[in-house]
Amino acid sequence: MKHSCPIRLCLSLLAVWWACVAVHAEDYVLDFSTKAFSGTYASTWTWTEQGIEWELDGAYNGTTASALYSFIRFGGHGNSNGISYIKSNRPLSIAVKGMVMNVKSVDEEVKQFKLCIAEDSLFKNTVEAVTQEAVAGEVSFLPQRDTVWMPDLYYKLEVHWNNPKEGNKVAQVFSLTFKEGIPPPVYVVTAVANDASLGTVSVEEKTITAVRGECVTYADPAWTVTEGEAEVAQQGDVFTVSPKSDCTLQINFAPAEAYTVTLEAGGGTLAGETELVQADCASAVSLPEAVPPCAGWTFAGWAEASSEATEIMPKLIPAGDYLPVGNVTLYAVYQHAQGGEGEQTLRMMMGATAGWEVLGADMSKSEDNPYYILKEGAAIYSPAFDLATITGVSAVVRTYYGHGTLLITDEAGNEWGTVEAWENKLFTEDGVKTQDLSGVGRLMFVSATTTATRGVGVAVITVYYRDVPLTYATYPDCHAGSGVDIQSLEHNVDWYAVGNAVYVETAGGCPFAVYDLTGNEVCSGVTQEGINRITLSAGCFLLRVGEKVQKIVITE
Predict the structure, then answer these.
(1) Could you give the CA distance from residue 256 to residue 427 in angstroms, rounded to a whole number?
(2) Strand partners, 238
(3) 424-439 tens-digit pLDDT
(4) Which percentage of the chain shows pLDDT scores above 70?
(5) Which of 49, 107, 113, 187 has the greatest number of CB atoms lying within 10 Å of its CB?
C-alpha cells in the first residue's frame, strides 16, 4: 500500500504525457518560439515543417530580449501593399476544425488578421476567408460554413496594416496551431425515376436534375426516399438532397392532366361555352371575345382576377390561343371611353402600362435612377390612341453629354417632336405636334444617338389626351352615374318591375337572360308575345333582351 501513491502518480504523469503526445500528433503546429530562421522583410523565404513548405513574405525572424524564444515579425520595410503573409505550398492532409494564432504583440496600425483557405496553392479557388481583429493573445479562426475545413486544402495567413509605406507595422507571432477535426461523412446519393417513359434523372453529388417528357408533371409526392435517410428540397426540376446516410431517391413522374379554363363574362355574354377544356396539356384553348353588358362599353380582354372599375389597365390576356398552366378562371374586362382629360403613362422598369412595347432596350444598372437604355434605332410603341385627341407628350430622358435624342413619330414616320437632355440633367419637355395626325394609331419613340457606344436613357413617357380616358371594369356598372348612357329596351320591348317581379312586354318571341353582377346567369329563355313575368330576389341584376341590356334593382 505504501507504493500505491508513487505508482498512481507515475500512471497519471504517463497519461498526461500520452495526451500531450496525442494532441501534438493530431494537430499541425508551426512553432516559431524555439527556432531561428533566416530572412528579412524585403525577401520571400520558405520554411519546411512536417513535409510542408511554407512561404513567408514581408516577415523576418526575431527573438526576445533573453534570446530564449523566437517569433515571426510580420510587416515592415519592403512591403508597399500593406499585407504580409505566410502560406502553404502544399496542402494539409488533415481536416481542420479551427486555427489558433498565438500573438505576442501587435502595433496599433496593424489592421486585421485574415485566414484564407483554398483548393490550390495560388489561392484562386477559395473555399473560405475568415477575418479577425488584430489583437495580442490567442486569436482563433473557425469554419463559417461547415464544421471543418476538409483535408488537402491550402492555407494562407495574411497580416494587414494601414499606411504601408511608412515604417514598420509589426505583428509578432509565436505559433500557428491547426486543430484537427473529424470530416463529415460523405454519403452517396442515387436517383431513379418511377417511370423511365415519362422522364429521366441525373445526379451530381447532392443535386438531382429531372428532365420531364411532354405533358408530364410530378406526382404527389414528387419524390420518395426508397433507401436510407435524407431531407429533400425541390425547386422546379431540381432536387437538392441533404443526406443523413447513403440514400436512393425516386423521382415520381405522372402524366399531366388537361386543364379547364372557366370564363366569367361579368354580365356580358359569350357565343360559346363558359368552360374550355384542353385537348391535352400541350394544346391551347381559344378564348372568345365577350359581348359587353352595357351600352358604350367594349371588350378589352381577359384577366386572371376580378377587379373594381379602375382607370389603370389590368394585365390583359387577348382573345385567341391561350395555354393554361393550371385550372383557371378568367374574367372579362370591358372598357368605356369617357369625356375629359386623361393620360397614359409608361414607367420604365417599374411595371409598364399594358399595351406599351419596349424593343431593343437594356436595363439600367442603377437602382436609384431606373432607365431603359435604348441603343441607336431602338423603339418604344405606345398603345393605340385617337391621334387627333392627343394634346401633349412628355418624357424623362437622360443622354450622354447631349449625344442623343428621343424622336417622337407615328407608325407611318410622321414626326411629332423631340425630347433631349444633358448628362445628369433630368427634366420634362412636352413634345410639339408638327403634323396634323388623325385616325387611330400608335406613337413611336425612337432613339437617335451620335455615338455607337451610348444610348438614350428613358425613365417615364406620358401621353396626354382629351375625350378618350378609359375606365376598365370586369363588372361594369350600367347606371347613369357611371357615365354610361342607359338606353331603354327597343325593338318593341318594354319592361317594368312590381315588387320582386319583373314584367317584360314584347310584340313577339325574343331571347332574354338575367345575370347578377358577378356574371352568373339567374335565368334565361324566350319571351312570348305579351307580358312575361320574371320573379327575382332582392338585388341588382342585368336584364338582356336580344342585344339590349338594362340594369334592374329589386328591393324587398
Answers:
(1) 53
(2) 209, 235
(3) 333 333 444 445 556 6
(4) 70
(5) 113
CA distance 482 to 480: 5
Pairing state between β 83-88 and 96-106: unpaired
Task: Convert the pLDDT of each residue in 526-545 to its tens digit.
Answer: 777 666 777 777 666 777 77
Ranges 233-247, 277-291, 469-483, 517-531, most confident: 233-247
Round to whole Å and give the CA distance between 155 and 86.
8
Mean pLDDT lowest for which of 64-68, 277-281, 404-408, 460-464? 64-68
391 phi, psi to nearest 5 deg: -105, -15
Instruction: Tell me 387's DSSP state.
Output: G
Instruction: Answer yes or no: are the C-beta atoms of 545 and 524 closer than 8 Å.
Output: no
Summarised one tens digit per residue, pLDDT across range 478-503 is: 654 443 333 444 445 666 666 666 77
User: Which grid coordinates belong to 506?
Assistant: 314584347
Q: In whole angstroms, what is the distance from residue 483 CA to residue 338 CA?
A: 7
Say what the pLDDT of residue 364 is: 63
Reported in sequence order, the residue ranges of 186-337 that DSSP labels E, i.e. its strands, are: 189-193, 199-204, 207-212, 216-227, 230-235, 238-243, 247-255, 260-264, 275-277, 285-287, 297-303, 320-322, 328-337
Q: What is the distance between the terminal CA atoms of the chain, rounded to a whole angstrom?
A: 110
Q: How far is CA 544 from the centre of its chain?
A: 46
The residue with greater pLDDT, 288 or 497, is 288
Upper half-sphere CA count for residue 360 (Cβ side, 13 Å): 14
pLDDT at 10 over 50: no
Residues whose CB is less than 8 angstroms from the CB of residue 273 and which lie 6 or more positions away in sequence, other chains included: none
Closest C-alpha to 275, from 287, 267, 283: 287
Q: Which of 151-160, 251-260, 450-459, 492-501 has the lowest mean pLDDT?
A: 492-501
pLDDT surpassing 90 at residue 389? no
Q: Which residues of 426-451 are buried (b: 16+ CB within 10 A; e: fewer)?
A: eeebebebeeebeeebbbbbbbebee
Contact assessment for residue 69 and residue 173, using Cβ atoms and an 8 Å cutoff: no
* CA–CA dist 553, 555 (Å, integer): 7
Grid cell digits, residue 527: 319571351
> How far apart, in whole angstroms, are the C-alpha atoms of residue 258 and residue 279?
7
Q: How far apart are CA 199 and CA 219, in angstroms?
A: 12
240-249: burial string, b at 16+ Cβ within 10 Å, e else: ebebeeebbb
Long-range Cβ contact pairs of 436-441 (< 8 A, separation 24 or more) = 437/387, 437/388, 437/390, 437/410, 438/387, 438/388, 439/386, 439/387, 439/388, 440/384, 440/385, 440/386, 440/387, 441/384, 441/385, 441/387, 441/410, 441/411, 441/412
Model confidence at 144: pLDDT above 60:
yes
Maximum Cα–Cα distance across the chain: 132
Strands 207-212 and 59-63: unpaired
SS (H, E, C) 101-165: EEEEEECCCEEEEEEEEECCCCCCCEEEEEEEECCCEEEEECCCCCCCECCCEEEEEEEEECCCC
Distance between CA atoms of residues 41 and 57, nearest Å: 7
